[in-house]
Amino acid sequence: MDEGSRLFVDRDTGRIVDEPLSTIPYEVRDLKGLILAPAFLELQTNGCAGVHFTVFEDASTYHENLRMVSKYLATTGVGAFLATIPTVSSDVFSKVLPQLSPQSFSGGAHLLGAHCEGPWLNPLKKGAHDASLMKIPVHTSVVGVYGNSANLQNIKMVTIAPELEGSSPLINDLVKSHDMVVSLGHSAADYDAGIAGLKAGA
Fold it and tell me: What's the per-residue H, E or C state across the chain?
């Protein structure tokens, strides 16, 4: 845009528009050379600002930690985030997932829900994950790993290695039955296994 140009942000949608869409008087702000840009979406963070999303003491402390992360992320330009839970035990999933419902924090980034990175990952590509907790899809169930339907509603994204036995039906179930996004990762898949994962819905 040229210097001195005007733009408008719609109050209802947050979108930048050519002209005001409302007759309600609008607030004028001089950006004084600053940049107006959309916020970032953080889809994979295990925590920050001294907080790790797998550490659970009690619900009140956990919520305060989410608020701290939310406030910090907003200072970095992040407007919304998924709290990423790596491969952990079902006991840990059962404690943290109920806390990760989509929610807003005053002055902070919005929590969109949880991204479960595992436990259906390839141990050969474990990275920082605990390989002893990794599962094979054909030997497990979604409820057995993550817990009840309330927990499942808070999960918005799952990372899976598509070459593991039973991955394609699991991907299909997560996408179609639970409305989750499936990402392929921590994988040693060949081309065919990767394509099968994509065809299943990843």
Answer: CCCCCCCEECCCCCCEECCCCCCCCCCCCCCCCCCCCCCEEEEEECCCCCCCCCCCCCHHHHHHHHHHHHHHHHHCCEEEEEEEECCCCHHHHHHHHHHCCCECCCCCCEEEEEEEECCCCCHHHCCCCCHHHCCCHHHCCHHHHHCCHHHHHHEEEEEECCCCCCHHHHHHHHHHHHCCEEEECCCCCCHHHHHHHHHHCC
Which pair of tokens denotes residue 191? 């081309």
Strand duo 40-45 + 16-17: pairing: unpaired
Q: Over 80: is that where the pLDDT of 168 sits? A: yes
Cβ–Cβ < 8 Å for 152, 146? yes
pLDDT tier, 83 (very low <50, low <70, confident <90, very high otherwise) = very high
CA distance 68 to 7: 32
Separation CA 25–CA 80 (nearest Å): 28
Question: Is residue 4 pLDDT above 70, yes or no?
Answer: no
Is there a contact between 146 and 116 (Cβ–Cβ < 8 Å)? yes
* Percentage, residues of the chain above pLDDT 90: 81
CB count in 10 Å sphere of residue 153: 17
